Automatic annotation (TrEMBL), chains A, B:
It comes from Actinomycetospora endophytica. Keywords: DNA-binding. This is Helix-turn-helix transcriptional regulator. The keyword DNA-binding applies. SMART domains: HTH_XRE.
């Protein structure tokens, strides 16, 4: 069944949180394998989280945040900023420069 | 002042988001059954989300936000505010009045 069109094209939570996790990891200069090892997960799984392909459980989110040296609320703050930026205007998303 | 062990005391994402969803629903004067019906889920499942017992998928989160008349980013903003409030001070969480 086809869904009714959304009023805007807001990204999914997992996409916003994935971008936040990737940005935090890169800011540390970590490779996927570095952060994943500290978080106790595979680099493949962390990569899926960063690309917004998987919804992390709250425990996984806490593990990755811990591995990145930040509280969960910092990851949530970044995800919110990502969603707010992409919302752009009330009439829809803005195009972000690459 | 003694510094509390922060990582152990931060609430889980699903607990913070659950409180945000409950607050938004109550602010509308909705019963669980009202919001759940619009979101296409059972009142029991919505109740579990609100109590922080289940991690909502991104699709479920979008469905509940839509049923509450807000974008996902508003739910995320409230979850962040909840986590920041409970973090309270650099030395640990504050006790919230009931």
């Amino acid at each position: 069944m086809r869904r009714a069109p959304e009023p805007d094209t807001e990204p999914l939570w997992r996409e916003a949180v994935g971008r936040g996790l990737r940005d935090l990891r890169r800011a540390r200069g970590d490779r996927l394998a570095d952060t994943a090892a500290r978080a106790g997960m595979s680099p493949q799984y962390l990569s899926e989280l960063e690309r917004g392909r998987k919804d992390p459980s709250s425990e996984m989110l806490a593990a990755v945040a811990g591995a990145l040296g930040v509280p969960v609320r910092e990851v949530v703050r970044r995800a919110h900023a990502d969603l707010a930026l992409r919302a752009g205007s009330p009439s829809g998303p803005v195009m972000l420069a690459a």
